Fold:
Amino acid sequence: MEKINAKLISWASILEQGTRDQAVTTARMPFIHPHVALMPDAHLGLGATVGSVIPTLGAVMPAAVGVDIGCGMIAVRTEYSREQLPQNRTPVREAIERAVPLSAGAFNRKVSRDHTRARLEQLTVQAEQADFEPGRYAKRWELQLGTLGAGNPH
Structure:
């Protein structure tokens, strides 16, 4: 963790200068409270830094709302200690990557999981009952459900 200034804290191990500059600018805004936090995947965004937490007091930042919400960072405590994991953790990482659908549907061609298919059926019925057409807002919504991330290279 690096405290860049009183209003900006970073957990990013690699922080490009443009990303840092964008976050510093955001942190200077008078309604930031208590500070902006950069996550390990922080990267330059179009209006706000992607992979950041930007709490505000008495203000809403439209540029920050929806900028990679749920970008994909999570810390999970497991039952395993470091000593119990193999020296080469690549197979573990690859198994996790295979288990988590990525790309926000960009590369998905079909719904392949039974639980996702069942949830889609439920949501379709609920949308019909509410006279709502999800396809008007997200053309590939069926292929996006339950996926994670879109812009990060893997």
User: Anything to note?
Assistant: The chain has two domains: 2-53, 82-144. The chain is about 25% helix and 10% strand. The CA atoms of residues 36 and 54 lie 5 Å apart.
